Amino acid sequence: MTRTIAIISGKGGVGKTTLTSNLASALTLLGEDVVAIDANLTTPNLGLHVGMHFAPITLHDVLKGESKLKDAIYPHPFGFKVVPASMSVDDLTGIDPSRLYEVVLNLTGKTNFILMDSAAGLGREAVSALQATDEVLVITNPNLPSVADALKTVRLAERLDKKVIGIVANRVRKKEYELTKAEIEEMTSYPVIAQIPEDSNVTKAIFAKMPVVNYSPNSPASIEFKRLAHFLTGRPFLEKPRFHFTIIDRLVNWMIR
Length: 257
Prior knowledge:
By secondary structure, the chain is of the alpha/beta class. It has a single domain, classed as Rossmann fold (3-Layer(aba) Sandwich). It has helices at 16-29, 46-50, 59-63, 100-107, 124-132, 144-159, 181-188, 200-207, 212-215, 220-233, 247-256; strands at residues 3-8, 34-38, 74-75, 81-83, 113-117, 135-140, 163-172, 192-197. Helix 4 packs parallel to helix 5. The protein is globular.
């Protein structure tokens, strides 16, 4: 059975692409077959995050009817597959976001997970991603404006009769001025199923064009991404965060930089 999950938020910059790339890799580490799709057609970033931003054939070509989907699917060195979007402004004309449903339908039954990195906001692109998938992961930052926008996303998903898996709180610092897990749950009426901590390794991993779960597997953010992957697959998670790296950890990080 293929699970199709839209990763969405009510605003930009909260970490949708980071969640998509790391969840794809974390699920792959569990033996799952995963396809990550960059459904942010106007400002795509998934290719940049995973080092596939110069793909010759992209989702834009598929949506314009100029290429077949199989030619826009690229295997990533870490095991998952990626359908990148074009970064060219010229490719914004002639695309039909509603055809995302056809893309997902074509992949259904051929993989375990389809993760769709949606566009920011609640415009046509984001709605098309929601309509194309069965389940929704809503990501937010622990501040009032972000959670308020996440609430709008939740309500839209409900109107479209989509299953909201839960809320992912990203860049959590545990400061007194942040909304707590309980407050986010009260506002959205859904459980916070992951709290990704603020972690400088995430920024370093983006610069290295790789998921942080591969760049720094034992970092606090990586542990939480892997915990979320276990949750989605129903597997118990026993690994604990390690805030102090061993000499081997430091050597591995130095070598992959």
